[in-house]
Amino acid sequence: MSHWREEYFLALGVRDAREQANAALYDAYTRLADRTSQVHPHSHSPTPTTPAAPPSQQQQQQDQEVLLTAARADLSSAQRSRTELLEKLTRTNAELEKLRKKTQTDTRRIETLLAERTQLQTRVRDRDEELRGKAKLLDDVQAELVSINLQFNMADQRAQKLEVENKELVDRWMAKMGSEAEAMNRASKFS
Predict the structure, then answer these.
(1) Please, what sign has the CA dihedral across residues 49, 55, 59, 64?
(2) What is the DSSP string of 172-184?
(3) What's the CA gap between 49 and 93, in Å, rounded?
(4) Which residues have a Cβ under 8 Å from the Cβ of 12 and sit 6 or more positions away?
(5) Which of 66, 21, 29 is nearest to 47 (CA)?
(6) Quick check: helix, strand or coil at residue 24?
(7) Residues 158-184: pLDDT tens digits?
(8) Coiled-coil stretches, from where to where (predicted)?
(9) Burial class (CB in 10 A: 0-12, 13-18, 19+), 33
(10) Which tens digits make up the pLDDT trace of 93-134?
(11) Rg from Cα positions in the chain
């Protein structure tokens, strides 16, 4: 279960390391911007040159102006880049927080589902045992019914046999009694 979580945290660590690798560069640009803004609070307009300056000094001032303009452009670019990075960092932090909350919610949901699954598995095992017990009981009842039916059939056959024997005995007895009665009747007529 923690496999995906480990991969996620590893990816966050790689991302943090990549962002921290440029932290020194960000700090250097920030310090440069702070120093430049302190030295030249209104540095957007070029400094006026004095007309009485000699040509070499004027050239130096122009070179300084070019360097200053380039530094201001670099500073402005760095400031824009810093602002963009801060905005991206804010968005990334918000997304990270949102994902962390979602991860916590998902983790709680997973734990709930795991507990429910365990409970259902236990209930299924209990039902399986109950069904096995009932199936065995049914088999026993069916075997008992077969045995009882067999005994009943045997008893029925015996009863039929005894009935036939009884009828034969009654018929023989009746025939015997009939012949004795006739013999008595004949004997009494002649006497």
Answers:
(1) negative
(2) HHHHHHHHHHHHH
(3) 49
(4) 96
(5) 66
(6) helix
(7) 999 999 999 999 999 999 999 988 888
(8) 75-116
(9) middle
(10) 999 999 999 999 999 999 999 999 999 999 999 999 999 999
(11) 57
Token reading at 169: 């005995």
First-to-last CA distance in the chain? 120
Using the structure block, give the residue that is written with the tokens 């991302």.
Answer: 15
Reduced to 3 states (helix: H, G, I; strand: E, B; else coil), residue 69 is: helix
Helices first, then strands: H and E counts in the chain:
3, 0
87: pLDDT strictly greater than 50: yes
Evaluate the CA torsion angle 186, 187, 190, 191 in order and state its sign: negative
Spatial separation of the C-alpha atoms in residues 16 and 89, rounded to whole Å: 11
Categorise residue 54: left if φ over 0, alpha if ψ from -120 to 50, beta otherwise. beta
